[in-house]
């Protein structure tokens, strides 16, 4: 099987414009994220694809990504499923790991676990992780599941909540992995990048853990946050705002068995 990675990113964020190119530890956010994707034992730079838009505003992102050796696919602004389907077809992938462009601390070990689980069971269309701090999880998708979801999806603007098409519709068989250790759990931690406070938090985190040329993982992150709970105050309370916005924007419809249905978020 040909395995790849898809990373959806665009610079036109409503809450923190241009965040993928903002500096953390003297490097852009996207570079740290791609470090982690490339740390997966399943992946090489020619199979890691940043999926962005055709808009001119994303041209600087394309230049930054190509500087890392990763690949670029450009497609729809709001229809991430279309963007993914185009990238899978263009690069000939049979299965992919999906890492969100807002998550510069995504954990490579769980990317591998997701892909291992997907590849071990041909009946699975998607594997997700539940129980890690927000911003550390990734998903593994089979290309056939993506084609099925795209065929049944009715909502063109699906950039918020698109994974619900794979996990809450019954369109493909879904498995969920849990953290392998209690040392990987932290219910209060937030490691995704949506707001200025998240950027401040991530800069503080990288200031403690980042060593050029190395990738720190979930255990190091959770261990630090247990030793330094003061860091959590930097972006405290934003998870609630994040989920509220998701519920407001994720108005997702699909057709199954001839019936139009809406995903309950």
User: Which series of helices and strands comes N to C?
Assistant: EEEHEHEHEHEEHHEHHHEE
Biggest sheet strand order reads: 5-4-1-6-8-7-9
Work out the count of structural domains. Answer: 1
Going by CATH, the homologous superfamily would be Spore Coat Polysaccharide Biosynthesis Protein SpsA, Chain A
Q: What would a concise description of this structure say?
A:
With 265 residues, the protein is α/β, with parallel strands linked by helices. The chain has helices at 29-38, 59-66, 80-91, 108-120, 143-152, 164-167, 196-209, 218-227, 238-249, and strands at residues 3-8, 23-24, 27-28, 48-53, 71-75, 95-98, 126-129, 139-142, 174-177, 253-256, 259-262.
Structural features, described:
With 265 residues, this protein is an alpha/beta fold. The protein has a single domain, classed as Alpha-Beta Complex (Spore Coat Polysaccharide Biosynthesis Protein SpsA, Chain A), CATH 3.90.550. The chain has helices at residues 29-38, 59-66, 80-91, 108-120, 143-152, 164-167, 196-209, 218-227, 238-249; strands at 3-8, 23-24, 27-28, 48-53, 71-75, 95-98, 126-129, 139-142, 174-177, 253-256, 259-262. The strands form three sheets. It has a seven-stranded mixed beta sheet, with helices on both faces. Strands 2-3 form a two-stranded antiparallel ribbon. The longest helix is centred in the C-terminal third of the chain and has 14 residues, at 196-209. The model has no long low-confidence stretch (mean pLDDT 96).
Topology of helices and strands:
Elements (H helix, E strand, L loop, with lengths): L2 E6 L14 E2 L2 E2 H10 L9 E6 L5 H8 L4 E5 L4 H12 L3 E4 L9 H13 L5 E4 L9 E4 H10 L11 H4 L6 E4 L18 H14 L8 H10 L10 H12 L3 E4 L2 E4 L3
Parallel strand pairs: 1-4, 1-6, 4-5, 7-9
Antiparallel strand pairs: 2-3, 6-8, 7-8, 10-11
Helix pairs in contact: 3-5
């Amino acid at each position: 099987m040909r395995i790849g990675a898809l990373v959806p990113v665009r610079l036109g964020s409503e809450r923190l414009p241009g965040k993928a190119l903002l500096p953390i530890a003297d490097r852009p956010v996207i570079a740290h994220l791609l470090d982690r994707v490339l740390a997966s034992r399943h992946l090489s730079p020619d199979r890691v694809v940043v999926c962005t838009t055709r808009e001119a505003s994303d041209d600087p992102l394309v230049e930054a990504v190509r500087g890392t050796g990763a690949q670029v696919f450009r497609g729809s602004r709001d229809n991430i499923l279309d963007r993914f389907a185009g990238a899978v077809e263009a690069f000939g992938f049979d299965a992919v790991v999906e890492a969100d462009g807002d998550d510069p601390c995504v954990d490579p070990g769980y990317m591998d676990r997701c892909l291992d689980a997907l590849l071990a069971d041909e009946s699975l269309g998607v594997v997700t992780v539940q129980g890690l701090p927000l911003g550390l999880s990734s998903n593994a998708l089979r290309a056939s599941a993506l084609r099925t979801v795209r065929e049944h999806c009715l909502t063109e603007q699906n950039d918020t909540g698109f994974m619900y098409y794979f996990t809450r519709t019954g369109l493909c068989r879904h498995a969920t992995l849990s953290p392998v250790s209690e040392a990987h759990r932290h219910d209060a931690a937030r490691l995704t990048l949506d707001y200025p406070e998240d950027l401040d938090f991530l800069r503080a985190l990288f200031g403690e853990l980042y060593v050029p040329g190395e990738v720190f993982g979930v255990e190091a992150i959770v261990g630090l946050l247990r030793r330094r709970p003061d860091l959590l105050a930097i972006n405290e309370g934003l998870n609630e705002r994040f989920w509220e916005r998701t519920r407001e924007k994720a108005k997702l419809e699909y057709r199954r068995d001839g019936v139009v249905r809406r995903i309950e978020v």
